[in-house]
Structure prediction request, 417 residues.
Amino acid sequence: MTIRSHPLRAALSEEMHVRRLPRFAAPCRLLQIVTLLGEASGDSARDHIAMLVTAGREVVPVSARYAVLDLGGVTLVWERHTEFATYTLLCPGPFDAPFDPELFEPIQSRILDHMPGEIVRATQIAFVGGNAPDPLPADLEAWFAPEAMIVCDVAGGLATVISDFRLNEDGYGRLLVRDRGLEHDEPAQLLLRLQELGNYRNMALLGLPLAQRLTPAVTGLEARLAGLTHAVSERTSEDDQLLDELTFLSAELARLLAETRYRMSATRAYGQLSIDRLAGLKIGTVRGYQTLADFTERRLTPALRTCESFSARLDDLSRRASWTSELLRTRIDIALAKQNRDLLTSMDRRTRLQLRLQQTVEGLSIVAISYYLVALMSYLVGALPGHSHDLAMAAAVPLVLAVVAFSLWRLRRRLSE
Prediction:
């Protein structure tokens, strides 16, 4: 049987199976590097992971967005997102030092060589079993900053997370996860949610410095637009000058919108993903410590609100600029209408003057035509014998005037019709 598949069927099926970690169990060490690529660097990221294949074996063949490689006892999971890529190293088995960077050093060096993009997050993760002894307070203080330590239960109490989410001297953050009864795919799913929460949170925060840097420029444009709007209401201001200033302001506003639109939209999307991942972790409190939800909401929510406020100010400024432009166009249209009215009034006055002159000329033309007709008739009458020529000519003058006036009146009437 021949199946006619949609051209995107295979790609959609592959998309449903990415963004997952291979199954593992405690104890296990993990290391994840997140590199910011941008939307146009997909080929370079795929070429880089294809180069790493030569040092190991493909467990899941390299595709455009996902690959799993066996690099001699260490598993590398590579995933390509819209504008960033993640490199996750898994090393199962017991360990003495949970955050010793030497464990992944050879493979880590190969990954960092020629890696495209810039690192935006890097984390060392120690996943320990429930039968392992609890870490001593001295060890926790050595691994994490006591004043910033976060301890909470996740997965409905089946695991405990400890971290301070700080950048350490080795360039990595640290995350300690204690398994208290996770089974099958649950460890991998939990680690995936935890890392996605951190990754999406960092990507969302990329919009905050941009909003903070451009906020003074937006404030300046708002003040300038307020001045222009007031000037539009004043009749003493020049329309040409106002139009030039408003055009410059609109161009600056369009530049700011083009510069920030994508980043602010991405911040909203990443922020919502972070909130979704946070809700899926089923966080429980541990007395005496702040939870992952407290840490995330206290830092992420203000940043998202700042970016939302910045975007709202830009949109509001764009609408107000459009309103001011419409007001100025209305003012210019009214001025043009007044000029046209004055011009038509002047033309009407000149037309009436021309009509009066024409009527005067017509009266004079009646006299002139009658004069010439009477002169012609005098020649005819003078040639007739036995008549009083002067009396006949005097009697013909009123008759000629009447005939000429009536003829001109008929002609003017026909032309007007």
Residues 159 and 179 are 5 Å apart (CA to CA). The two ends are 85 Å apart (CA to CA). The domain at 207-341 is CATH 1.20.58 (Methane Monooxygenase Hydroxylase; Chain G, domain 1).
